[in-house]
Each structure stands twice: as structure tokens, then as C-alpha cells.
Amino acid sequence: MAREYRYKGSPEYPGPFESATIVIPVMNETVSLEQTVEIILRDARASIREILIVVCERTTPEAMAVVHRLESEQGELVVVHQQKLPFLGGALRECYALARGSHTVLMASDLETEPKDLGRLIEQARKTPWAIVAGSRWLKGGTFAGYLPIKLVANWIFQALFSVLYGVRLTDLTFGYRVYPTPVIQSIRWEELRHPFLFECLVKPLRLGVPVVEVTTTWRARIEGESQNPFFRNFVYFRTGFRTRFTNPDSLLLPDAPLLRLEEARV
Ligand SMILES: Nc1nc2c(ncn2[C@@H]2O[C@H](COP(=O)(O)OP(=O)(O)OP(=O)(O)O)[C@@H](O)[C@H]2O)c(=O)[nH]1
Ligand SMILES: [Mg+2]
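^ thats the input. predicted complex w/ guanosine-5'-triphosphate below
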């Protein structure tokens, strides 16, 4: 029998911010990865439970050398995971299942998700631990340095279209810089394996009624390596957005979802 589930986040549920698992996928980043880790440790060390670096067979030897050095320098703080599922979505999905912090941070290692802003994202997560805190490049003060003008226009239209469709006043539904309450991401049935996962992992929580709070962030193009997301793949995002909008929210949850167990414990 289908169960009726609606997320009722509150200051006590699913729990306060205690510590963060920082998920960092790595493909071809060296200097950018070093700087990312250096800055997040400088600014947010006290809030971090673990840095979960996820790599794959295609991760370059240069990037692997940096990963191994960070692992030996930082001891238990850095956990390295070799992904089994393919692509970016596969990498992130496996990390979501492994996360041990009360909250999980999604970011990149190519400096496109500004590590200097992590402190502000976590500060907001401490205030609203039941909500997803999402970095937005479109809020006042945000930037898109080095973004192709055609992509910028397409991006704005896309954000406006799907905000209306989901009935939310959000400005950035696709940027992969967010803090999640871990029980939320461990409760959802994920499907995407490639970059559209970054959109899926916002719209599915939205469909379940999880609130999202945006924080301004800046974006600048990577300085080394290249993106794994060819332009044409952006069209797949439409399919993800429309399909999720019209599916039954209950079907988005795993049968043994931590959120359901918490909900039962609360009654
Ligand atoms: N482990 C792992 N990391 C990946 C994979 N694909 C991408 N990454 C990393 O994930 C981060 C984001 O990927 P990018 O390809 O830069 O994607 P993006 O910045 O969202 O896409 P663009 O806006 O097109 O540049 C980068 O740090 C990549 O190196 C993958 O299959 N496995
Ligand atoms: Mg990138």
C-alpha cells in the first residue's frame, strides 16, 4: 500500500547540524584540488567530519598523486572512495550512501564551486538544518565569470521555467554547491548517472516538500583540466525536470528511507 509522506522539517527534525561530510569528485584537478582542500580546512575545519574524495579509473595519475598526498597528510579526515557506478552522478550517489556527517556538502574540485563560500553555506545550514542550503549564482552579488553568453541566457530561462513549474522562488536549481541534511539524500531513489544528477538531486527533494534556502555564491571557469559535461547533454535536464515534476512523490523514496523511520519515531 502506498504511504503518504510529506517532509515536515523543523528545528528538531531530522536533527541539528553536527558535522559535515564534504563530497569532492576528482577527475583531472591538481592545483585546484589542493586549493579547495586547503581553503575548506582553513575556513571550516571544526565543522567537518570527513572529506570524501571520489575517484574513478579515468582520474588522471597527476590528480591521483594529489589525492594520495592529501590522504597521507590528513589521516582519517580524508576518505578516498573508488567509484563503481559510472560518471559524475554515479560517483555522487555512492558518496551519499557513505556519508556519516549529519549534513553532506556537494561541491567540485575544479574551483568552480568557490571554496571560500563554504563557511557561509555551513553557517546557514546551522541556522536551518532541516533545509537544503543551495549556492546560487543568480542571487544579488553572485557572478558567472567566464561563462559563455549563450549558456548564460539559456541558464536563466531554464531556472525561471523550472522555478515556475515547481512553484518555488528559487534562482539556481542546477548548481552543484549545496549542503544537505544527510537523511534526505539517503532516503531518495536516484536515477541519473551523468551531470543531470545535479538537477535531480534538487528537484526530487523539492517534490517531497524539502525546503531550500539559497545563499549567494560566485562562479568562475576552471583554470585547469576540462569539463566532463558536453553542451548537448544540457538538454537531458529537461527530461529530468519534467519527469520528476509529474511523478508521485511517494515513489521517490526508498522503502527503508531514514526519513520514514525518523517520521515513525516522531509520532
Ligand atoms: N569521480 C568523478 N569525478 C567527476 C566525474 N565527472 C566529473 N567529475 C568531477 O566533478 C566536478 C564537476 O564536474 P565538471 O565536469 O567540471 O562539471 P560542471 O562544472 O558541472 O559542468 P560545466 O558547467 O559543463 O563545466 C569536477 O571537479 C570534475 O572533475 C566522474 O565521472 N567521476
Ligand atoms: Mg566544472
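The chain has one domain: 20-266.
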